[in-house]
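Q: I have two molecules that I believe assemble together. Could you output structure tokens for the complex as a whole instead of separate predictions?
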Amino acid sequence: MNSLIVFTVVDIALLIAGLALYLWIVGTQLTRIATNLEECNELVQAIKGNAESIEGNLEHINRTGGVVAGALPLLYGMAEGIVVGATYDAEKVPDRGPALPASGRRRSRLHDGVGYLPDGPVKSAHAPLADHVESA
Amino acid sequence: MVFALTESQESLWQIANWAGLAVVVAVAALLTILVLLVRTIDRRVIEIKATLTEAKANTADAALLDTTAAGLDLVLAEGLEHHLFLGRVLKKVRS
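A: Yes, here they are, computed for all two components at once.
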């Protein structure tokens, strides 16, 4: 009889203790999960705030980029027209033959370069050197 | 005060006690499963938090799209200037 009572009390105590222990463990875990989920909520709000500007700006960029891309061929065409109009056209230039010197053979100026004046400074076709002027 | 129980009553009590112990064991097993599942949830919530942190860092530069859009507007304005300039030059070259 007494053993049955003790057994019953132990049984009930085990049940209560087990339930309390698991309740405490699960409660702790759920508290931690709740904290993490709150932080996740804040992160999601921040991501939403960051992403709100993406759609409008992307539409703007796509629209403007489309205008730029559509206008570039026009600019190419105009640039090509300018190049064609300004480029040297060999067919339009008349054939003038090879270029010839204007007045026969030119006089060598090597002697003048070294200061040698065979005809004297007076008869020279060019201005005399500075030392010749001083000596004269 | 003395409680007098018959043999069958004691036997039934005994059975009830063992059944209660079995229930305790079953509850413990089920609660263990519950704790393990909650721990899995906790681990995955931590992974989700890490992923969201990375996503936040990745989208933090999305504000630069505003600057990019403004820059592209400047490109468009410059392209219009080029269009006007090339138009003038083309007229002179053709004339």
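A: One point stands out. Chain B is about 90% helix and 0% strand.
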